[in-house]
Amino acid sequence: MNVRLTAPGEAPAMPAARTVATSNAAVEFGRVTKSFGDVTAIEDVSLRVPAGEFTVLIGPSGCGKSTLLSLAAGLEAPTEGFVTAHGREVTGPSRDTALIFQQHNLFPWMTTEANVAYGLRSRGMARREALARARELLAKVGLSDFAKKPPTALSGGMRQRVALVRAFATEPTLLLMDEPFGALDHQTRKIMQAYLLSTWRDSGATVVMVTHDLDEALMLADRLVLFTGQPGRIAETLDIAAPRPRSRDDPGLREIGTRLERHLAAAAEAAEFTEAERARLASR
Ligand SMILES: Nc1ncnc2c1ncn2[C@@H]1O[C@H](COP(=O)(O)OP(=O)(O)OP(=O)(O)O)[C@@H](O)[C@H]1O
Ligand SMILES: [Mg+2]
């Protein structure tokens, strides 16, 4: 079990704002601050996400995790600092980037297969070919029988499976996921995690995922990035070198889990939290 901790002070100096990075990072945040009116969501965040890695963002509610994903997706612009994807400044949404939210975002008026085919068609694939590919992908996740049905006919777990299939269908180089399995039951969640890991490994994509679930973070991440409460700053990063598939009983992982719990509890002490967040922490 190999764990490397990096205090924020040890991070290499970032280039000045607006300078485009030259590293091989799939995503890079350079001294990023993002404010919404009076609210500073994130402050002075510098982070390099190496290509092909699985990075998980963890932190208390309101610390700006979703905001960071929005910046990487080009849905928001930083107030200060810069965000690059594959060495180019992010100035808007990119075809190479896919985003998955907790709510699946499927189009209710289309069949499930048409939802999966949508991204392929918008990239110029012929209708028949795109639908055939969509059916092939749906079969891989056991949803062949639902291909012709609308997403409303699917359970929450099934819909999120479709959302994942749809995201990977277009072969994104960067996949941003915001609590994608938050609404799923424990068993479905574990199945989805295994599916995500195998699909990610086959794809070679870079993943940045937000989760509140510590077990999920430990099972999936190459690297964990822990944030302070609002305004979100990086408290520390932890590299997890445990080989996959990982065991929940791995003593090294348990040790990191304890550390994460302590971090979140301390952050909860230091900040104002919603009742829901307190309840979540208390249940651990
Ligand atoms: N579009 C927006 N307009 C105004 N304020 C916003 C906007 N997006 C985020 N914020 C504010 O920025 C802060 C950070 O929000 P964000 O959603 O990024 O947090 P989070 O870490 O994802 O929280 P959670 O864990 O609850 O999802 C919050 O105070 C939020 O109200
Ligand atoms: Mg969020």
Task: Characterize the structure shown.
The two termini are about 25 Å apart. The longest helix has 20 residues. The protein is α/β, with parallel strands linked by helices. The N terminus is likely disordered. A hairpin with a 2-residue loop joins strand 2 and strand 3. The strands form two sheets. Strands 1-11-10-4-9-8-7 form a seven-stranded mixed sheet, with helices on both faces. It has eight helices and eleven strands. Helix content is about 35%, strand content about 25%. The site of magnesium ion has 3 residues, from helix 1.
The rough form would be described as globular
CA-atom Rg in angstroms: 19 Å
Tell me about the biggest sheet? 7 strands, mixed
Distance between the termini: 24 Å
Low-pLDDT segments, ≥5 res: 1-22
Total helices: the number is 8
Percent range of helical residues: 25-40%
What is the average of the pLDDT values? 87
Kindly estimate the percentage of residues that lie in beta strands according to DSSP: 15-25%
How many extended strands?
11
The secondary-structure class comes to alpha/beta
SSE string: EEEEHEEEHHHEHEHEEHH
- Give the bound compounds: adenosine-5'-triphosphate, magnesium ion
Strand order of the largest sheet: 1-11-10-4-9-8-7
